[in-house]
Each structure stands twice: as C-alpha cells, then as structure tokens.
Specification:
By secondary structure, the protein is an alpha/beta fold. It has helices spanning 22-39, 60-69, 88-101, 118-123, 131-146, 174-183, 198-207, 232-238, 240-250, 270-279, 288-301, 316-331; strands at residues 7-12, 43-46, 75-82, 106-111, 167-171, 187-189, 220-228, 284-286, 306-310. It has an 8-stranded parallel beta barrel, surrounded by 7 helices.
Length: 332
C-alpha cells in the first residue's frame, strides 16, 4: 500500500516522566505539537484521564486551547473527552469557545469510559447504570447545541451554536463501532492499548455504516504505539519505558514514566510479559526499515484512513526524534 494515501496524526497523553514537573511535561506537549505541525502531521489530540500520577491531561479542553494557541494550522482536539463525566452543554460551550478562537482547527473526540478507576469515576459523578443509554443521548444533545436550528430553544450553547465542529466516536471495543456506524460519525479505535478487537470493530463499522449529511462515507482512525530510532536495537531499548508503563498498569502500580532498562526479564514474569506484549501487539517498534515493514503488514490486515501515533518515550528529545523518523519514512 502507498503509505502516503493515509493521514498521520499524534495522540498525546502528556505522560509525566520520572523527575519531570507537570509544568515541564505540558511545555513538552506544546513543543511536540509545534514540531508535529512542521513535520506535516494532520492533527494533535489529547486524552482525558484522572487521578493518574503519570498523566497530566485531565483538563483536556484547557490543554486543547493551550496547544492550539501555541500552533498555527495543525488541527487540535480531544482524543477524547469522556462525555459521561460532563454536562453536554458545558462540553458544547467549551469546544464552541475553542472553535471560535481557533476556527477550522478544533476536533471533538468523545468516549464513554471513565478514564480512571471506579472510585474516581464516582467522584466525577458518573452513574454506571445509565451510561450506555446516556452516552448516545449526550451525543445527540451535542449535535443539537451545535446546530443553527437550536437558536429558537430555551437552552443554547453560546459560543458553540452554528459552528461546524466535527465529532469523532472513540472506542476500545466493538460496542463503540456499532454506535459510530449507526450515527454516521467517524470512528477512532484505541489500538495503542486494546488491539484485540480492532480489526473486528472496523469491519463492523464499515459494514453497518449509515451515511450522514456531514460524513457521507465511513472514516476510521487507529491509534497505535510507535517507537522509532536509528536502529532496531536502540528502538527496543527505548521501548522498555512503554513496556514498564503497561507492566505497572496490569499491576495497578501507578507511577511516572520510567527510564529505559537493559533487561525487562529482570522486571516481569513470563505471564506478565505475555500480557504486556498482547496489549502492545499492534505497536511499531524499530528502525526505519523495520517500522515500514510492520506498518505495511498492519495496513494489509487492518485498512484504515488515518493513523494516530502514540510515542511513549522517556526522554523528550528521543520522543521528538521518533516522531520525526516515522514521518520522514512516510514522506520520502
């Protein structure tokens, strides 16, 4: 497949590296976005998470404004806002404000997961018994608040009303694929941590897609991990930061991102190694030629319209280099 036929974007979780302040982490996110714009990436999304000492993107709409304000043309958005954590009206107002300030550059990706643990989900005011029914209703509310027709109603999103803000459905299971297809909205899958059902979800979405006025054709985005370096050996070494993060995830041991290590076998058990590698089975790790071969194989199995790259690398300069190597490979 011609790799230039699809789009390439970045998903940033604002990972906090061990020894870094949150302030420095957020400055690094902006620096990455500035470089991404220069390298020709399509969009830069930030993900909502809460109560995590290794992720600084909890106030997602605020960060979207920070990144959009520090760049010139790259699209910026949420990947995503976890809609049941919020009032639909407030989200419409927030993203309406962002689109007003940065016209034609704002995306609204939405999901239904809490982005945290059960205790924190309760602190966010979520009601797990109504979320499955509430989520589609909230999407409909958002679409209504953004519509010009809503100007005659008693509750209006100001700013937001009449603005063209694309809504993307995010998911990590086949449930979200059915919903995105039914609503005729673009669909992004979290293959960077839940790749098991990604191909199945995309097939469901495409086969059952109902064209909408704004999106007459299905559109799929796959978020995948990429660790690129000048050599395979160096990429494998840098990727141990990613492996450690997922090892800590399955151990429920939250901590900032850790430096790379020489030997992962000294840290995980064989069962843990198998679990982590399964969760990262769609990851692209290696030098340029290795990454290209893996990407071609991935696209042959899972045809998509856009890849959203996640590079969880400890050192900021190495992370920048990974994104640059990957984009240069596509562009040559």
């Amino acid at each position: 497949m011609d790799l230039k036929k699809i789009k390439y974007s970045i998903l940033d979780l604002a990972y906090i590296a061990q020894g870094n302040s949150i302030y420095k982490t957020l400055k690094h996110s902006l620096d990455l976005a500035i470089h991404a714009e220069k390298w020709g990436y399509e969009r830069f999304w930030l993900a909502e998470h809460h109560n995590m000492v290794n992720i600084a993107s909890s106030a997602t709409a605020v960060l979207v404004g920070y990144i959009a304000g520090g760049t010139q043309k790259i699209r910026v958005g949420s990947g995503g806002v976890m809609l049941p954590n919020h009032s639909s009206l407030v989200v419409a107002e927030q993203f309406g404000t962002l689109e007003t300030l940065y016209p034609g550059r704002i995306d609204l990706g939405i999901g239904r997961a809490p982005g945290t643990d059960a205790q924190t989900a309760r602190a966010l005011g979520r009601n797990p018994h109504i979320i499955n029914a509430q989520f589609p209703h909230q999407i409909s509310e958002l679409q209504t608040y953004f519509s010009k027709e809503n100007r005659k109603e008693g509750v209006r999103a100001i700013p937001g009303e009449g603005l063209e803000i694309p809504i993307y459905i995010l998911g990590s299971s086949t449930d979200s694929a059915w919903l995105a297809a039914q609503l005729g909205l673009p669909y992004a899958f979290a293959g960077h941590f839940a790749p098991d059902h990604m191909a199945e979800a995309f097939n469901i979405y495409r086969e059952h897609y109902k064209p909408s006025q704004d999106f007459p054709h299905p559109y799929v985005i796959a978020a995948i991990n990429v660790v690129a370096a000048p050599t395979d050996e160096e990429a494998d070494y840098l990727a141990t930061t990613l492996f450690q993060a997922f090892l800590n995830l399955i151990r429920n041991d939250r901590k900032p991102s850790l430096p790379p290590v020489e030997d992962m076998d000294a840290l995980w058990s064989p069962i843990e190694a198998m679990q982590v590698r399964r969760m990262l089975s769609s990851s692209l790790i290696g030098g340029e030629s290795t990454i290209e071969k893996k990407l071609q194989h991935f696209l042959s199995v899972c045809p998509i319209d856009e890849i959203m790259v996640v590079s969880h690398i400890y050192d900021h300069q190495e992370r920048l280099r990974s994104y640059e190597i990957f984009k240069n490979m596509i562009s040559r």
